Amino acid sequence: MNCKKAGMLISASVDGELSPSEEQEFLLHLVECKECRIEFDDAKKTKMIIQEKIIQFKAPDALIVSIMQLSGFNTKEHEETLLYE
Amino acid sequence: MDKTDPTRQTKTRTKKESLSREERQKQLEFQNEAVAHLNALYNYALHLTMNPSDAEDLVQETYLKAYRFFNSFERGTNCKAWLFKILKNNYINRFRKNSKEPGKVDYDLIKDFYHTIKDTRSDTSESENDYFHSLLHEEVYQALHSLPEEFREVIQLCDIEGFTYEEIANMVESPIGTVRSRLYRGRKLLRAQLEGYANKYGFNNNDQ
Ligand SMILES: [Zn+2]
């Protein structure tokens, strides 16, 4: 495998999206190529930073309530229909 | 004559009851499946709209649509991916068509976001002297938002939401190969941005 092909596989390898045979070939290249190894580490670190530093906000309570109502509303309606039938 | 037929009445009634049971089953399933992804959808909407009340509207609209079309959701596939796709379509239809300047970053808004929450996540100690760990949340956020949308989108869907390439390809309506290369190029761009911040603090990344 050359660097050009390895470069194309870096992200997929970081994300665990390579087939076992691709992965093996790719890792073999990393062992013998320092440049690609550095690129691979950089990509991995970049992913980690995003996962670590991008804060996930909690949805506002009002939104949660309104969505619960959305899927619960009809249930009540149906129960009532059954009761009055 | 049909009207007075008692057999017929019973039949109708049974049919109604079983329909409503089905309906209730659907609601339960919907609640379990869909509500679990509420936070993720809200955050994605925030990233897209950069505006909390727009984000709420978008999520609400998404759930309305999802509930209405829940029957068309393929059981056993990723419900989160399905919801994200609906949200994305809603966003395009609603905001993008008459948008002022898509992709424009409101830095004040970002700062507001980050100042309203305390940093509860302690930085992992696995590489203490790594300059990346000194980056602020809002810097990473800004770096991410400085990327062209096609790159930012795949990074978000992959790294934050944990979707597979196949799911992402379906969401952005591009082949998997395109997703692969966008992630590759997007991460390179992002890396360069982050290094800019790191250099600002006088960290030298050449020792790495
Ligand atoms: Zn190489």
Structural domain count of chain B = 2
Q: What sequence of helices (H) and strands (E) makes up the elements of chain B?
A: HHHHHHHHH
Give start-end ranges of low-pLDDT stretches of chain A.
73-85
- What's the multimeric state? heterodimer
Secondary-structure-based class of chain B equals: mainly alpha
The CATH class of the largest domain in chain B = Mainly Alpha
Characterize the largest beta sheet of chain A: strand count, sense, and whether it forms a barrel: none
Largest sheet of chain B: none
Q: What is the string of SSEs of chain A from the N terminus onward?
A: HHHH
Note poorly predicted spans of chain B.
6-13, 117-129, 204-208
- Helix and strand composition category of chain A: mainly alpha
Residues in helices of chain A, as a percent range? over 70%
CATH superfamily of the largest domain in chain B: Winged helix-like DNA-binding domain superfamily/Winged helix DNA-binding domain
List of distinct ligands in this structure: zinc ion
| CATH overall fold name of the largest domain in chain B | Arc Repressor Mutant, subunit A
**Mean pLDDT across every amino acid position of chain A:** 84
End-to-end separation of chain B in angstroms reads 89 Å
Question: Given the C-alpha coordinates, what overall shape of chain B results?
Answer: globular
- Rg of chain B: 23 Å
Would you write up a description of this structure?
The complex is a heterodimer of chains A (about 80) and B (about 210). Chain A has about 80 residues and is mostly helical. Chain A folds into 2 domains: about 50 residues, no CATH class; about 30 residues, no CATH class. In chain A, about 80% of the residues lie in helices and about 0% in strands. Chain A has 4 helices and no strands. Chain B contains 9 helices and no strands. Chain B is globular and about 65 Å long. In chain B, helix 2 packs across helix 3, helix 3 packs across helix 4 and helix 4 packs parallel to helix 8. Chain B has about 210 residues and is mainly alpha-helical. Chain B folds into 2 domains: about 80 residues, Orthogonal Bundle (Rna Polymerase Sigma Factor, Chain: A); about 110 residues, Arc Repressor Mutant, subunit A. The chains are: A mainly alpha (about 80), B mainly alpha (about 210). Chains A and B meet through helix 1, helix 3 and helix 4 of A and helix 1, helix 2, helix 3, helix 6 and helix 7 of B. The structure holds zinc ion. The site of zinc ion has 6 residues of chain A, from helix 1 and helix 3.
